[in-house]
Amino acid sequence: MKWIISWLFICVIALNIHAEDGHHLWLRKQAPKPVKIICKGNSPTLSIARQELLQGWMGVAGASVTLTVKRDKLIKGDGYKITPSEIQANTEWGILYGVYELLRRQQTGETVKEEISNPSYERRILNHWDNPNGTIERGYAGYSIFWRKGADSLAVTEKDKTLWQEYARANASIGINGTVLNNVNASPYVLTAGYLAKVKVIADILRPYGIKVYLSINFSSPAILGGLKTSDPFDTGVVNWWNAKIEEIYTLIPDFGGFLVKANSEGQPGPQDFGRTHADGANMLADALKPYNGIVMWRAFVYSPEEKDRAKQAYLEFMPFDGQFRDNVIIQVKNGPVDFQPREPFSPLFGAMKKTSVMAELQITQEYLGHSIHLVFLAPMWEECLQSDTYQEGQGSTVARCTDGSIYSQKHTAIAGVANIGLDANWCGHHFAQSNWYAFGRLAWNNHLKSEQIADEWIRLTFLPGQAKQKTISESDWQQHFYVPVKDMMLRSWEAAIDYMMPLGLHHIFAGGHHYGPGPWEAPKGVRPDWTPYYYHRADTLEVGFDRTRKGSDAVSQYHEPLATQFDDLASCPEIYLLWFHRLPWTHKMKSGRTLWDELCWHYEDGLHEVRDFQKTWDRAEPYVDAQRFTEVQSKLRRQYRDAQIWKDACLLYFQQHSRMPIPYDIERPVNDLEDLMKIRLGWSHHN
Ligand code: GCW
Fold first, then answer.
1. pLDDT tens for each residue of 235-287
2. Does residue 508's CB lie within 6 angstroms of at least one atom of ligand 1?
3. What confidence tens digit (pLDDT) does each residue in 320-338 have?
4. Using an 8 Å Cβ cutoff, are 341 and 508 in contact?
5. CATH class of 463-546+583-688
6. Does residue 688 have a pLDDT over 80?
7. pLDDT at res. 512
């Protein structure tokens, strides 16, 4: 008996050793070749650089690499110059980034000549929506890696430290250099001594990897924590309180990055509570942070039930203050004007605020794109936004160029991504969701990178042929049967999700609260109208869509010409944004010659078929992947298909009640009844 138990034990250990749970992300262990490193300096960051080269060198065996920290006019910020045997940078962090780039090239087989790479943005920041009790708002990968519930919430274990170091390494490897450790719906208590002591420990671990920590703050902290009567930014007591708090923070963490603020948004306190403006609030904090080189990232995510068109409010509220913010304030603007919907046109604030630093906020966590259940590669969405032309300073004034300092001189430039990271072994809940963390970092470093290149790198780094189930595969076999179809699947996945959720410019037709399943039938009965899908689709027996043309809410006029006219005019409005800008009869003729109703049906159908196809692609990939990741992704795809079917059935059957037109007969018939779908929606809130 005893030996059976110990035999079983050995088997479990052996299995564990070979278990491929995805924890290594895109940084997989391989047997390195010997390399000689020539480097004069000595520091924690340079030691990491050396160690990474020693444990990951896949170049010529016995080669030597020289690392030199030396200024060069062509190298900017933490950029670097690399050749196959040299890395030069202005800063040690630049050396580290150069090391990761060189190793990445060796692994992906991309050649290196002599080249300089400079980051597009000075600050490349993750925003964690982690609460002090360990839960994560819109997080689908388990609890927070920083905070936890209960009495030991502020304790720091060795396990925590290891995890934070792995986290820092992963971020540094893709150029991320900042992290906001807590939710923008901020608890004031993160500024108390106990939390700050823990923030210091985290900062100390992240520092050698070039990562600064930031905190989200609650604007009412002076009243809640300091016992003051007010948190009015013009009150001297309030100003003194912030000054003292900021001094306390910098005494602990001399390179603390600054604050992220969600103010007067979705019930959060802010300067307007005291009759002051966004500029008054942001500037007060900016002045207090200035002596320490800290910055304020002030969010423009504002909307209220009074505004007739939610999509217009951020622009209306912020444009009047253009030029009034301090130079260490950056206005943080979500990619679209509403809220991280499956597809939105870019926010009209980009490029329009010409005298204010503006940064984009992207959402890596898939709040509106299938949580950690659906396989959706987000790089194409971000590429679409970053490469959108705002025309603010003539043709070519893309969102990327309006925010990275190429067009406007901004004292600070930055980009943020809402993190999808949690305690799950694979960090992100879905193995493919790791590609979105990767993509954010790569685009933050180079906002002109193509999605295809990002997918290429990520697949090669994450699914090494050596880790395949079938050990005898050749490189070309892997290339043809794994790499090509999997890359294709990733690149099609965002459009597929749009098609089975919200095609042709439809948006926010999710069931309330959880933002996972469909709820187009939800109407404003006792609920804020702008929190119900009806507000956004406005379907009746004649028409569907939100009229944002000049005759409607006139949101189109917030865009610079020729866009305002292009969006306003039905003939030139891109069909991907059709129902975002126009309210149209069901019988409206589309470019394809179909009616709007038929076209809508076909999009839902195509989206669903795409997921069926992804299942086949993945099943065919089985020999090329380790068993654990294969099965886990396979199971998620099954769920994705079932839920995509529900999306299609729910939307078509619901909208059909209005259009009163038949679903084209070449389309697969719905398999669910609308009444059932309307009932099961609540069950979906606890599926993660
Ligand atoms: O997308 C919405 C989310 C909220 C979030 C808010 C925001 C953190 O549903 O959960 O709150 O946006 O970005 O502030």
1. 999 999 999 999 999 999 999 999 999 999 999 999 999 999 999 999 999 99
2. no
3. 999 999 999 999 999 999 9
4. yes
5. alpha beta
6. no
7. 84
Amino acid at site 623: P
- Give catalytic residue positions: 266, 339, 367
Looking at 1.10.620.20, 3.30.420.240, 3.40.50.980, 3.20.20.80, the CATH number of the domain 123-462 comes to 3.20.20.80
Pocket test for ligand 1, best of 183, 219, 299, 301 (most atoms within 8 A of CB): 301
Residue carrying structure tokens 């002090």: 132
Which of 3.30.379.10, 3.30.70.260, 3.30.470.20, 3.30.9.10 is the CATH number of 31-117?
Answer: 3.30.379.10
Distance (Å, whole) CA 532 – CA 530: 6
Cα 135 to ligand 1 centre (Å)? 14
- Nearest atom in ligand 1 to the alpha carbon of residue 339 is 1
Q: What count of other Cβ atoms lies within 10 Å of the Cβ of residue 89?
A: 28
* Separation CA 627–CA 617 (nearest Å): 16
Count the helices and strands in the chain (H runs, E runs): 21, 15
Q: Whose CA is nearest to atom 1 of ligand 1?
A: 339
Residue 303 Cβ < 6 Å to ligand 1: no
Q: What is the mean pLDDT of residues 210-239?
A: 98
CA separation for the pair 266, 260 (Å, rounded): 16
Asked whether 128 lines ligand 1 (CB < 6 A), one says no
pLDDT in tens, 345-355: 999 999 999 99
- The answer to whether the CB of 514 is under 6 A from ligand 1 is no
Would you list the domain boundaries of the chain? 31-117, 123-462, 463-546+583-688
